[in-house]
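Review form for a predicted model. The reviewer records the input and the model, then writes brief findings.
Reviewer: anonymous (R2)
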Amino acid sequence: MRDDRGSGIVTVIISVSFVAMLGVSLLFLTYMNAQINQSDLRAHRNFYRTEEAVDLARGNLQNAVSAAIEAAYTAALADYQNAEETFRQAFVIQIKNRLGAYSARHNSAYSFHPSESAAEYITVSGFEAQVLHNGYQDTISTDFEIQIPQHNGNWNLNELIVCRNWSKNEKN
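Model under review:
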């Protein structure tokens, strides 16, 4: 006959150890998942801050275009016989003045396409918004394309100004 005394306690200790290891593993996985979610949340928030800077720059361009349209329309009313040409010339002059100041502030350049005299749109190229927050750095690069409006055409600023060549770069 064998002596089985103490084997029950050994079985209980092994079972409790196994359950404890499973519990610790589950706790560790839950902790790591929470860390990953927090990191993801911080990265998204930083991206939204960077996108907000692009929206602010686009809003500044919309203000410049709106002011240029207003001045061009006033000039076209004064010379109604040649309203379309007067509007176009006045808009180009006004937008050049405003874009010169804008480009200097934002380290970007602008160009007329296909040429200044026959331009259909103006490209503000090289705009870059960069945000560094909580160890995350996001950079958004884009070009803004401003369509030259018609005298009696569409003046919806959301359609007149569009982003082209949009790219995102993130580092953490």
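Findings: The longest strand covers residues 121-133.
Further findings: DSSP finds three helices and four strands in the chain.
Recommendation: see findings above.
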